[in-house]
């Protein structure tokens, strides 16, 4: 497994340690992958914190640089463990800040994350779209968009959290081609975030193709992924419900890894695992409590695609 091409698979990530995690009633309105809380708040928060800490340890053991920030819960931000929705980073020194659909999630934006990025990495431009919340226009970062950094394509499933106007601005500023489509779960509910059912690695892509009802758009998604030489691995709706699509490829000291939850890995077939392992090592993370909030490994990890200024140490 090669380690030279890291354009799609960053070597560093940002994660937020949740001290007051709980499933968010506000986001449950359009996130069909959430589960109701089944325990006392303190017990739920303690388990989520332990899962997060174990995930950080596993990623660091694999050689990924992990910048960890604490959320003490004082701002009532139950979903802060999912930072990839409010910011993204890009080769060439660009950072995007995004408008969030749920009001409670808008409080997750924090200056110390941006300060860390500017101190340790080359940040040339920050595009701040967050003010569009006042116009009810939303685009929730790399949750709403799954980015092919090689083919320069932004794949986006239509939802309350992905507005076409903001997407057009992003694609103009960052130089991506938008490919927009509808995607629904078996109950006919729109997929709330594209990254729930789609993951793009360097040499493969995981995607719930059958959840795209329009055959023409389904073929476009498959074809555009295959044009860059990727092995397109189709996931079933049941596998998507087990978060098999909510994974992220990273680069460690021994090559590329695919970080995903233990539940997601168990949902993959032997053939699918073999196809992934042709180019990346599977790194399962135990996240049963955090997954109750409707997100999994990918949502927890904000990739850093910026160039380091010098030697970077995790915080």
Descriptors:
three-stranded mixed beta sheet, 26% helix, Amidinotransferase, 315 residues, Amdntrnsf_FN0238, alpha/beta, L-arginine/glycine Amidinotransferase, Chain A
Description:
The chain is α/β, with parallel strands linked by helices and 315 residues long. The protein has one domain: L-arginine/glycine Amidinotransferase, Chain A (5-stranded Propeller). It has helices spanning 41-61, 111-120, 141-144, 164-174, 215-226, 237-241, 262-267, 270-277, 297-300, and strands at 12-18, 65-71, 87-90, 94-97, 125-128, 145-148, 153-157, 177-181, 198-200, 204-207, 231-234, 248-252, 255-261, 281-285, 302-304. A three-stranded mixed sheet has the order 2-1-15. It has a three-stranded mixed sheet with strand order 3-4-5, with helices on one face. Strands 6-7-8 form a three-stranded mixed sheet, with helices on both faces. Strand 7, helix 4 (164-174) and strand 8 form a beta-alpha-beta unit. The protein is globular.
In short:
The protein is built from 9 helices and 15 strands. It is of the alpha/beta class and 315 residues long.
- How many strand units? 15
Mean of all residue-level pLDDT scores: 94
| Alpha carbon gap, first and last residue | 29 Å
Overall CATH architecture: 5-stranded Propeller
- What portion of residues belong to β-strands? 15-25%
The number of distinct helices, counting runs of at least 4 residues, comes to 9
| Uncertain residue segments | none
Largest sheet: 3 strands, mixed
State the domain count: 1
CATH first level: Alpha Beta
- Taken from the alpha-carbon principal axes, the silhouette is globular
CATH topology: L-arginine/glycine Amidinotransferase, Chain A
- The fourth-level CATH homologous superfamily is L-arginine/glycine Amidinotransferase, Chain A
Q: What is the helix fraction of residues, given as a range?
A: 25-40%
Main-sheet strand order equals 2-1-15
Structural class: alpha/beta
The rounded Rg comes to 18 Å
SSE series: EHEEEHEHEEHEEEHEHEEHHEHE
